[in-house]
From TrEMBL:
Domain Nucleoside phosphorylase: 20-241
Catalyzed reactions: uridine + phosphate = alpha-D-ribose 1-phosphate + uracil
Pfam family, one: PNP_UDP_1
PANTHER family the UniProt entry points to: FI09636P-RELATED, URIDINE PHOSPHORYLASE
Species this protein is from: Streptomyces katrae
EC number: 2.4.2.3
Top-level EC class: transferase
InterPro entries: Nucleoside_phosphorylase_d (IPR000845), Nucleoside_phosphorylase_sf (IPR035994)
Name of this protein: Uridine phosphorylase
């Protein structure tokens, strides 16, 4: 692998696998890398931590992008510059639509572009959509693993706390969950001709009319049910990458 590094994330400019799983937390990248064979940490600069390895024979990169679309899009662009062609984001999200439990997976079919960065790129009418084949691969992997999952549109929002924004109105429109980076990935992928999708683990509920604060104590993402969901989602995402690569075994 060449030592020439890209300027913002300091990842190698060539030699990476064409399939990548991206996450927010650098520690989560390390945890996912433990699921790979022959995992190796390649670089770590700021929030951008990169591992390579293989999953059932498929070379895979696992990289972290930090919190929020403006920083995350730098990684997505430089992964594309380095030759990555298929990306799946594994993250956490707050449920908006009723019937979605903590620890469940949400497979994104598209995203509301409220990410704080793509509005300065293509015009707002340009959609943030997941590749259909990525949605189907994630759904198949979740179904075959008997993992509770849902499909739908997600709201990518730059502000972590929605505050006075119309969360319940998005719920009425059928939006499944809220998170912070996916639309930046989907727009980047469409502009670059890449295949991209996202699977999110529900770590709480953001719709006010669905939250029982007295029963739940409010937002508490560091629970075993969420950690178990993240572990299941990592396996689902890696299997989806394998399916997308055409290695159906």
């Amino acid at each position: 692998m060449t030592q020439d590094l890209l300027p913002l994330t300091r990842i190698p400019s060539t030699g990476l696998p064409s399939s990548a799983l991206v996450v927010g937390d650098p520690a989560r990248a390390a945890a996912v890398a433990e699921l790979l064979d022959d995992a190796e940490e390649v670089s770590h600069h700021r929030e951008y931590r990169l591992f390579t390895g293989s999953r059932k024979g498929l070379p895979v990169a696992v990289a972290s992008h930090g919190v929020g679309g403006p920083g995350a899009i730098l990684l997505f662009r430089e992964l594309a510059d380095a030759g990555v062609r298929t990306l799946i984001r594994l993250g956490t999200a707050g449920a908006i639509r009723s019937g979605i439990a903590d620890g469940d997976l949400v497979i994104a079919e598209g995203a509301v572009r409220d990410d704080g960065v793509t509005g300065q790129l293509p015009p707002p009418e340009y959609p943030a959509v997941a590749a259909p084949e990525a949605v189907l691969a994630l759904a198949r992997a979740a179904r075959e693993a008997s993992v509770p999952h849902h499909r739908g549109i997600v709201w990518t929002r730059a502000a972590f706390q929605p505050g006075l924004l119309p969360v319940t109105e998005y719920g009425k429109a059928g939006v499944a969950a809220i998170e912070m980076e996916l639309s930046a990935l989907l727009v980047t992928a469409s502009l670059r001709g890449l295949t991209a999708g996202g699977v999110l683990v529900v770590d709480g509920t953001n719709a006010d009319d669905l939250v029982d604060v007295e029963a739940t104590g409010g937002y508490a993402p560091h629970r075993q049910v969420v950690a178990d969901g993240v572990g299941r989602a990592a396996a689902v995402a890696l299997e989806a990458l394998r399916l997308l690569a055409g290695d159906t075994g």
